[in-house]
Amino acid sequence: MASNSVTSTIEEAVNGVFDPVAEFLTKWVFYETDFGVFPTPFPWIVGWLVVAGVVFSLYFGFVQARRAKLAVDLVRGKYEDKDDPGEVSHFQALTAAVSGTVGLGNIAGVAVAVTIGGPGATFWMIVAGLLGMATKFVECTLGVKYRDIHEDGTVSGGPMHYLRKGLAERGMSGVGKVLAVGVAVSLLFFTFFGGNLFQANQSFTQLKSVTGGEDGIFGNSTGALLFGVLLAALVALVLLGGIKSIANVTSRLVPAMAGLYVTACLIVIGVNIPALPDAVSEIINGAFNPEGVAGGAIGVLIVGFQRAAFSNEAGIGSAPIAHSAVKTRHPVTEGLVALLEPFIDTVVICTMTALTIVIASTPSWESAREAAAAGEGPGDGVTLTSDAFETVLPWFPYVLTIAVLLFAFSTIITWSYYGLKCWTYLFGRSRTSENIYKVLFSVIVAAGSLLTLGALINMADAMLFLAAVINIIGLYLLAPVVKRELSSYLQHLRDRRAGASGPGGDGVSEPAAKY
After folding, report:
1. DSSP for 131-149, written as a single string
2. Helices (H), 241-275
3. How far apart are CA 138 and CA 485, in angstroms?
4. Which of 482, 464, 502 is nearest to 315 (CA)?
């Protein structure tokens, strides 16, 4: 009891200090407006992210559709060269980045979206996910183009590098430096409290709930601390190995956990297969003719876009940090690989969750929809998803616990790498600097099972989307660079097919190698 009292005192003190700052940032970043035309207000940051997806889709001629096959070929290693500079393969870079986005949002967040917006929100999630693919393509191409390859072969990349270097090339050196520091600070703050503490806390909460709650083995502060220390030790072991270690873990973990989750979805859908056509019809009709949803069709669109934007993180600037470590001489190859990320996260996994909930149509979901229509809260998203699976798989809460733990672990280790690169950009790459970061990160992991620190988590969410404001400004200014990279690489492929590539028949043609 004394230990619980201590943690409560710490939480109250921290929240008391950061509450005013968190409240200000949250109100500004997630400020809701109807822009004078919509019947329902929504966070302007969602519009900022979605408009970027539309602009880049048009500017690059819907590259996400036209170059999808090439993207898959690159992930399969069709054009890989083991002598290319970098640390990890295209597949490993993709899984490392996906592990940072696939998580509780895909399980709980989607349930909340289809509760507030009805089944039709799923349609707009898919649309927003497809648009986000173009944004991800742009930022990850720039991440590789402007990365730093150090003497020991390790790589540093991300928005802080392409904002500084890219804008300097455009004669805006001072602006680039300020924006680079701003995005590094924003992503680092989210690393500690959103990509770390929140994930540890939520995974512990789910574990405690299936092991007897307050009366179970993890129902006291000792059990919480034991879980936190064990999780911190596992994270530290992976973090010490750098991106190669993280990529080795995520390249096995992400396909396994995604496969486990999607398989469970398919089982529920398969058992209820006669209901599938009606569910699809509900999703399509609900996108344009919703019933009982505030704001009507526009309200559904807003809910769907918001869920997709918050889930796949396209435009945030985090993914380019992982993708920058790829082995390649052509920056645009990783941009093409990266555009698959929102497809996997939003179009596939979020849609599978939504379909499962709509098809199961549990009493708890119907009640939550009625409550949401009456202006009450949408309820606990994880519970609604769990109830949907439980209609076919009574033991699913245990599977869900495993999924949550895997999602949380993979998210933590990926964000640990993102944070490290932001930290070293701000404080230098010395061994002492890196070790301080790793110790600090591991301590926060251990504390995550004991503390919630709501103000810091709210502030972290705001900082993450503040990074998107900074990042997308840079993407607009540097989009012509990406267009040149794409044209150069496509010409290289044409030369290669015609037998006109560099030495050895598999090299890089001279014009394409100059960036």
Report:
1. HHHHHHHHHHHHHHHT-EE
2. 242-271
3. 10
4. 464
**Per-residue pLDDT at 264:** 85
Q: Are 413 and 233 in contact (CB under 8 A)?
A: no
Hey, what long-range contacts does 375-379 have (CB within 8 A, 24 or more apart)?
375/294, 378/111, 378/112, 378/115, 378/116, 379/112, 379/115
Task: Give the highest mean pLDDT range of 96-105, 283-292, 417-426.
Answer: 417-426
With CA atoms as reference, report the closest residue to 419 among 244, 189, 86, 238.
189
Mean pLDDT value across the chain: 82
* Surface-to-core class of residue 152, CB atoms within 10 Å of its CB (0-12 exposed, 13-18 middle, 19+ buried): exposed
Taking the C-alpha atoms of residue 469 and residue 347, their distance in angstroms, rounded to an integer, is: 24
Local confidence band at 233 (pLDDT 50, 70, 90 cut-offs) = confident
Q: pTM of this prediction?
A: 0.84
Cα–Cα distance, 482 to 377 (Å, whole number): 43
- Residue 306 to residues 84, 270, 344, 404: CA-CA distances in angstroms? 38, 29, 17, 22
Task: With a cut of 50, say whether residue 367 has pLDDT above it.
Answer: yes
- Treating both helix axes as pointing N-terminal to C-terminal, what angle do 121-145 and 276-288 enclose, rounded to 10 degrees? 80
Specify the DSSP element, H or E, that contains 42. strand 42-43
Q: In b/e form, how buried is each residue of 170-193, taking b as 16+ CB within 10 angstroms? A: eebeebbeebbbbbbbbbbbbbbb
The whole-angstrom distance between residue 182's C-alpha and the CA centroid of its chain comes to 20
Which letter does DSSP use for residue 130 in this model?
H
Are 134 and 57 in contact by the 8 Å Cβ rule? The answer is yes
Residue with tokens 């990406």: 482
Q: What is the pLDDT of residues 52-102, one digit of tens each?
A: 999 999 999 999 999 999 999 998 888 777 777 878 888 888 887 887 777
Angstrom distance (rounded) from CA 39 to CA 404:
36
From the list 296, 305, 293, the residue with the least C-alpha distance to 47 is: 305
